[in-house]
Amino acid sequence: MIKGILFDKDGTLIEFNSLWVESTYEMIHTLVKEYANTDYAQKCEEIANLIGLEGHQVREDSILASGTSEQMSATIATVLHADQQQVHQKINTFLYEETVRNSNNIKAIGDIRKLFEKLKQDNFTIGIVTADNYDITDYTLRYLGIREHVDFIGTASNYERKPNIEAMQAFCNACHLEKNEVIHVGDSVVDMEFSRHGRLGVGVLSGVGTEDTLRKYTPYIIENVHDLFDQNDKFIFEGK
Prior knowledge:
- GO terms for molecular function: phosphoglycolate phosphatase activity.
- The protein has helices at 16-35, 40-51, 63-66, 69-80, 84-101, 112-121, 134-144, 166-175, 189-195, 211-214, and strands at 4-7, 53-54, 57-58, 125-129, 152-154, 182-186, 200-204, 221-222.
- It is of the alpha/beta class.
- The model has no long low-confidence stretch (mean pLDDT 94).
């Protein structure tokens, strides 16, 4: 019986591009301007490509799609011949401040608050597992008005990044669940690989992953998280 649901954040609960694409370009330009002495445009383009930006689209297999800020900082520091720890700190600070400053760009995919209220009414335990950092994640959940409904937050700040099992095990331990009682909902290949630690994975088409790619990992593909309930307001995995 399914008792717990772990959600990815970007692309699953909130629109990915509206929050991160413009901010990431601004971050790249800021760092290149600070560290590079020549070839600014070339270095900006190189970094953007390496972390997964193609114009205003994000490659589904990229660092930006499902990697951590630490991975991003390693890539950027290499291109700019800069100290990785210093770059990592600058990235974390920039992204948090940018999230707060442009919180109007945090756009929920549908009425997430209503969905989470419904899940809690049906006695589901809810967790968030994301490659993002804790402070950005906590701020985002509070901005969306759903923090009170979330029983567990697993981020790259305190657990090994997906698809490592650590966050799944921590969720189960903290909320007294078995792994076969937990499903994971996400939009990327990394999410689907992480889902294998639980009962099943649900791929959503609201983020970076395509249906063809996600279907290689799970038969359960939905348009967005709201399709977890059918037209009769019934949980689609009831009885599974």
